[in-house]
Design goal:
coiled coil; 6-stranded mixed sheet; flat; 753 residues; AAA+ ATPase domain-containing protein; Rossmann fold; RecF/RecN/SMC_N; alpha/beta; 4 domains; AAA+_ATPase; 65% helix; P-loop_NTPase
């Protein structure tokens, strides 16, 4: 059988915002803990997820009270959710899944949703799904806190109605009430029909005297109506001829309109196809324009332009450096020629500045070789250019400092000719590096040109394909425009034909109305065969003669006497048939109600006897030396009395339940509840503190009975006593921490029997 493997709660009552999982035993699961910790909230959660609709049944004033309210630093829950996980390995539930999860979620706005295996469902679907294995919400497999007291505090009639519910007596009561309602209607109808019969009989006597006087008048009237019918037939034939002509026109015009509509539809379909082709071509053009080949070619051109620009700047810098080297060489030559090595303090500082600027230039140059992008290369070239300009200015100043006007000062200070030669050598090395850079840039330009050459043919092919597609698209757009023109031409033409068709249909409707009027008149006068060569004028003349003869009979003739008599006779016969039928219905209803009462009593007594048998047997098991029985206050007519419980607990005399002690009443009430459950067993039971008023000995017996029940059904019980704990297959404790209920598994080996 399917059973609940675990319960999951989130945001429900005292269980906080964190998901809480409670695995259940296939047999008996006991939930224990001090009062106020939240044990019964687990039972409320079971009621909630199984679709119970009364908040008060779940110990709440309103449904929003079922949500965790927060406090002690915890935020209130925005929703409450409870899920039941069913082990459906044996396929007991009609769902093709080994695990079935039923979920109910409640939001603070009152919105409630149900789910079966995460699929949105209704409450009725869940109830129907579990109906075969578990009773509906409110069934006797759920015994909530305090309900044991309710069973022994009931009055006898309330107690008997429990048997009524289990026996399905309500179904018979509904049938009987429905029959009583029908009987009242039948009796009221009988009274009405009797009054009508008396009235019709009186009318028939008065009409019978006038009937013979009106016969001759009626014959004349019939002839007049025959003439009128022939005249109407003549009008009808003319009207039918016109209608046939209009039908021919309408059919022809309808066919032409349908033909033009089909043409219009084909134009729209062709336009749709052309638009699709145009969109497809446009996508192809866009794809080709974004082709990798075009991108590669465009990037190659950009790279060539950038590298060419860098090459040009590098060559310009190299040319400037050549001039500087040449100028420095001339200065060194002059120094050598004049044999003057002295220099003033200013020349020494200029040489130091020259060294520093040259070092900066070399650093920038070496950084150029490590550039990873054209943009960074451009920026470094700009800095190199500025550094070379600075070197040029320093060289000019050095040149000026060693000119003819400084000869006297240079004689005082020896110029370091070796140092100048070293600087010259450094500039020459820099020039060599720039030459290498020029060669490297030239090589990169050649590589980019090679890439461009490789992509050039494919680029031309793609551009040619794009041009072809654009031409095709233009051609298709021209066709689309042509179709649009044809569409615009067809629309007014179709509307004009539809206008003509509407006018013809209006004319046809007018003729149809005229024909209906003629047919209605023919119904009044009676259709007659149309004579050949009928003369309308002669027929009109004869009709006038008949009118004059009818007028000569005077007002003493009751023109409706014969018809009224026959109508009264017909009504009398109909009402008499109704009267006889109603009498038969009345007797049938009386017989049916007697049969319902008998079946109702039989069903009730069968249920009562079985429950009584279970009650006596269970009571003897709970109180071995005791005895108990169920007794109807009125055995001959059980529904006119209540149900008494008579018990003789072990060591006591025989008493009605109200005379027993609290513990004895609780034990007797439990026996009654177990008898109800045994009569209609289910796979799942929920019992909340049913052992609260029992003494230790009786708790042990009740616990043993629960253990036996758990072999066939799954049981969840809330208890405070060791007797029930000791027989549990699984035990959970409930405590509270900071206002939130916590679940703890309890080792059964630590529980004393």
């Amino acid at each position: 059988m399917p059973y609940i493997s675990k319960i999951e709660l989130r945001g429900f009552k005292s269980f906080g915002n964190t998901k809480v999982t409670i695995p259940l035993s296939k047999g008996l699961t006991a939930i224990v803990g001090p009062n106020g910790m939240g044990k019964s909230n687990i039972i409320d959660a079971l009621c909630f997820v199984l679709g119970w609709m009364s908040a008060k049944t779940m110990r709440a004033e309103r449904f929003s009270d079922l949500l965790f309210n927060g406090g002690n630093g915890s935020r209130p829950a925005s929703f409450a959710e409870v899920s039941l996980h069913f082990d459906n390995s044996d396929g007991g539930l009609p769902i093709n899944s080994k695990e079935v999860v039923i979920t109910r979620q409640l939001h603070r706005d009152g919105k409630c949703t149900y789910r079966i295996n995460k699929r949105r469902a209704t409450r009725e679907e869940i109830i129907d799904l579990l109906a075969a294995k578990m009773t509906c919400p409110g069934g006797y497999n759920f015994v909530l806190q305090g309900e044991v007291n309710r069973f022994f505090s009931m009055d006898p009639v309330e107690r008997r109605k429990i048997i009524d519910d289990l026996a399905g007596v309500a179904e018979y009561d509904e049938k009987k009430q429905k029959s009583l309602n029908e009987l009242q209607k039948v009796e009221a109808n009988l009274a009405n029909v009797g009054a009508v019969l008396a009235e019709i009989s009186s009318q028939m006597e008065n009409l019978r005297e006038q009937m013979e006087t009106a016969i001759h008048y009626k014959q004349l009237k019939r002839e007049r109506e025959q003439i009128r019918g022939i005249l109407l037939q003549i009008r009808k034939e003319k009207c039918l001829g016109k209608i046939e002509q209009l039908k021919t026109k309408i059919a022809s015009l309808t066919e032409e309109i349908e033909k033009q509509r089909n043409r219009y539809k084909k134009i729209l379909e062709e336009k749709e196809k052309l638009n699709a082709k145009i969109e497809e071509i446009s996508r192809s053009v866009d794809e080709k324009r974004s082709s990798d080949v075009l991108v590669v070619a465009e990037r190659a051109r950009a790279e060539i332009n950038t590298l060419s620009d860098i090459l040009k700047r590098t060559e310009e810098r190299k040319s400037a450096l050549d001039q500087e080297i040449e100028s420095l060489s001339l200065q060194i030559k002059r120094l050598c020629d004049s044999k003057k090595t002295a220099a003033e303090e200013t020349l020494e500082s200029l040489l130091t500045k020259f060294d520093n600027t040259r070092s900066k230039f070399l650093d920038l140059y070496h950084s150029l070789n490590r550039c990873e992008s054209l943009a960074s290369a451009k920026a470094l070239l700009k800095q190199i250019h500025e550094t070379l300009n600075e070197l040029s200015k320093i060289v000019e100043r050095i040149s000026a400092s060693i000119g003819p006007q400084k000869i006297k000062q240079m004689e005082l200070q020896q110029v370091n000719e070796d140092k100048l030669r070293g600087e010259l050598a450094g500039l020459q090395r820099t020039r060599d590096e720039l030459n290498k850079q020029v060669l490297e840039l030239s090589r990169k330009i050649q590589e980019a040109q090679a890439k461009l050459k490789g992509a050039d043919s494919q680029e031309k092919e793609i551009k040619s394909s794009i041009e072809t597609l654009v031409a095709q698209r233009s051609s298709l757009r021209e066709k689309l425009e042509s179709l649009g023109k044809r569409e615009r031409e067809l629309e007014p033409k179709i509307r004009a034909m539809e206008g003509d068709l509407q006018r013809f249909q209006i004319q046809q409707d007018a003729l149809a109305n005229e024909l209906r009027e003629i047919n209605n008149e023919l119904k009044n006068v009676g259709e007659s065969s149309l004579p050949e060569n009928a003369d309308p004028e002669a027929l009109e003349k004869r009709a006038q003669e008949i009118e004059a003869e009818l007028a000569s009979l005077g007002e003493r003739v009751n023109l409706r006497a014969i018809q009224d008599f026959r109508e009264s006779e017909r009504r009398y016969n109909e009402e008499k048939a109704k009267h006889d039928k109603l009498m038969a219905e009345k007797q049938s209803l009386l017989n049916f109600m007697a049969e319902i009462d008998e079946k109702k009593k039989q069903v009730f007594m069968k249920t009562f006897n079985e429950i009584s048998k279970h009650f006596t047997q269970i009571f003897r098991e709970l109180s071995p030396n005791g005895d108990a029985m169920l007794k109807l206050e009125n055995e001959q007519s059980p529904f006119d009395g209540g149900l008494e419980i008579i018990a003789r607990p072990e060591g006591s005399g025989t008493s009605y339940i109200g005379s027993l002690s609290g513990g004895q009443m609780a034990l007797t009430a439990l026996a009654f509840i177990f008898a109800l459950q045994r009569y209609r067993p289910t796979t799942f039971y929920v019992l909340d503190e049913i052992d609260a008023h029992l003494d230790p000995k009786n708790r042990t017996r009740v616990a043993e009975m629960l253990r036996q029940f758990s072999r066939e059904s799954q049981i969840v019980v809330v208890t405070l006593h060791d007797a029930v704990m000791s027989v549990a297959d699984r035990l959970f404790g409930v405590t509270k921490e900071n206002g939130i209920s916590r679940i703890y598994a309890v080792e059964l080996s630590n529980v004393e029997g």
